[in-house]
Write a structure and sequence with these properties.
Fumarase C, Chain A, domain 2; 20 helices; three-stranded antiparallel β-sheet; about 55% helix; mainly alpha; Fumarase C, Chain B, domain 1
Length: about 500
Amino acid sequence: MSTLQLDGNTLTLEAIRDVAERNRQVELSADSIARVNKARALVDRVAAGDEPSYGINTGFGTLAEVRIDKKDLRDLQRNLIVSHAAGVGQPLSIPEARALLLLRCNVLAKGYSGVRLQTLQLGLDMLNRGIAPVVPERGSVGASGDLAPLAHLALVFIGEGEAFFDGQRLPGRHALQKAGLEPVVLEAKEGLTLVNGTQAMCAVGVPTLLRAEELAQLFDLAGAMTIEGMLGSHKPFIAGVHAVRPHPGHGSVSASLRAILKGSELVQTHVDCAKVQDPYSMRCIPQVHGAARDGLTFCRSILQVEVNAGTDNPLVFADTEEIVSAGNFHGQPVSLGLDVLAMALTQLSSISERRVEQMVNPALSGLPPFLAKNSGLNSGFMIAQVTSAALVAESRILCHPASVDSIPSSAGREDHVSMGMTAALKARQVAEHARHVLAIELLVASQALDFRTPVTPGVGVKAAHDLIRSRVPHMDRDRELHKDINAVASLIDSGELITTLRKALAA
């Protein structure tokens, strides 16, 4: 994998995953180095002068009017970091912490922060040598950015805090030493530069979005498998239906279903059946899944801008020699986007759970009760549907929007906040629930399809069914269902299922 060049402007969401999860190496572009040095020169001139400038020679937040003596500027920056490192809870995962470090370095690389090149280079060296700061996931209200999480990140820069290195959780200074690195002493503005921004909510939000996009494709597959298992109609997915209501997601899902169901012999078995319409959970898959897809597209558009955005305060404009205190650190756009992501995934989960109910309910399916042979003696998939319902119920609660909430802080100076990190953590949990809801539908639909053999389903359905059956056998008698659910979830996590589907559709 080639080295990723950071310039503050062209980082993609997929490249973030490459660095966070696959340890792709990172370096600064030549243009970025020039911009960083130019901005730093302006900060040095202001720090050497007598005019007050926020964050350079003043206090922070409500203390912005307090002038700081030049001899105390280093202590000012260190005190900011240690005082703001007030996070609690479980640490971010190592990939999330690496994404956080990468995103912070990318913002600094834009050249509007005023950081010294050596401080930025230490962040890149930490990434390239496998150091991941220990960052508690809770404590940010997402207004002056993710202050507490970023402060824990910054602690490692100065040789304090904790970091993961070589499979161990170590004091920050020890982790740096083991990696052959030295901490920095922060100069004027650098402490504030390291803690202002929306990078923590993005570090959680970006991998959650990428995961959600893959889950959305597989929910289409699960829906198609249910349609085949229930002998549902394919007519609602014809292109003409989309043409008269041309929402992008609707069209994308309709096309996806047509491809997955192509070549189905099952659909021919009920051409003359008396049923006129299928339930909404099957007939309206393009409308519901499509709306969710459009929601994810909205979230992607927000995150793609944000990961390359200048979110410092104050911003350093070297070309015009201005240092401007503004509000780019406010996480409202990200918070709203991640709330939509959670709602989109919950839509997908909710309709999936209804399709599971269709399959296990003999009054609706025409199949054995709970898809169990010798039902009564065996309970089959009765409680799988209950588990799905429990996950959907919790996801609905988690969909209460964080982006409309606000708790003022900093003695009223930060009087409107975004709660963006809360939105990110909620979305991450909803994605985990959606993964299990999806696994349950895939598992139940596979059992329903078994009752339709030997008639061949559509190409995508058959490929997925064959893969699932290679890991989870047909259930003839009751067994521990959590093992089966986890086995299918592993196929989702590993990428095997989506790869198998794509190969089948490309054949």
